[in-house]
Amino acid sequence: GAGVSQTPSNKVTEKGKYVELRCDPISGHTALYWYRQSLGQGPEFLIYFQGTGAADDSGLPNDRFFAVRPEGSVSTLKIQRTERGDSAVYLCASSLDSRGGYEQYFGPGTRLTVT
Amino acid sequence: AQSVTQLDSQVPVFEEAPVELRCNYSSSVSVYLFWYVQYPNQGLQLLLKYLSGSTLVESINGFEAEFNKSQTSFHLRKPSVHISDTAEYFCAVSDRGNQGGKLIFGQGTELSVKP
Question: Which residues make Cβ contacts (< 8 Å) with residue A28, sequence separation at least 6?
Fold first, then answer.
């Protein structure tokens, strides 16, 4: 079946602009995670959803970052007033359940470049 | 809080040689342990995981990892590597409790297998 998909695959934007990154999880997966991977680093947790609600947003770096999952499927990560330090690969993952131990399936990522 | 340390950022090795990628973690609670692999130009994939039971876990392509609670380690080993094992390897932990399945990753180890 189809895996996790993310659009766009690449996004170049100017400092100060607003961007939206989209994630389509595997059908039937109730848990959805967002991570950010900077060059030479491991993925860093941002936020996760169980169903429609954000169960843990402790990894969001500041209030410029926001994510939604209104129907419990597709999720959008929104970044306002982008800064050059936001440049990274943004990864989305989905899982059958949010409890620890369930495998997370990762998408290919969106490479965000802020100029 | 949890943290993961991968002691080697790069590991060059010749084909058919054995390899060990080291991973240590720090946590105040019990954790699940994972190794993820990222092949060139591909997304993150689960390689193996330790949830409970036998402390030695194996993957389908010959890798194994052993959970050592006293040393808080989960090192990854393979007795004979192939060129196709060239990839970035990430160790990760998640909380066994009620913190959801969010993954805390190490910074990654780049395994480079040379002919």
Answer: A96
Cβ-proximal residues to A103 (8 Å cutoff; 6+ apart), any chain: A95, A96, B46, B49
Residue ranges of alpha helices (H) inside chain A are: none
Tokens of B4: 């993961």
B115 Cα to chain A: minimum distance (Å):
25
Measured at the alpha carbon of residue A22, what is the angle toward residues A19 and A25, in degrees to the nearest 5?
160
**Could you give the dihedral angle defined by the CA atoms of residues A37, B42, A34 and B97, in that order, rounded to the nearest 10 degrees?**
-100
Cβ pair B107:A103 closer than 8 A? no
The 10 Å Cβ neighbour count of residue B112 is 14
Return the structure tokens found at A33.
């995670």
B28-72 pLDDT per residue, tens: 888 899 999 999 888 899 999 998 888 899 998 899 999 999 999
Task: Give yes or no for a contact between A40 and B107, defined as CB atoms under 8 angstroms apart.
Answer: yes
Count Cα neighbours of A15 within 13 Å in the Cβ-side half-sphere: 4
**Separation CA A102–CA B1 (nearest Å):** 20
Residue A34 has pLDDT above 70, yes or no: yes
CA atoms within 13 A on the CB side of B109: 25
- Is A57:A5 a contact under the CB 8 Å cutoff? no
> pLDDT-based confidence at A97, cuts 50/70/90?
confident
Question: Which residue among B36, B101, B105 sits closest to A95, beta carbon to beta carbon?
Answer: B101
Q: Which of B31, B49, B104 sits opposite A45 (nearest CB)?
A: B104
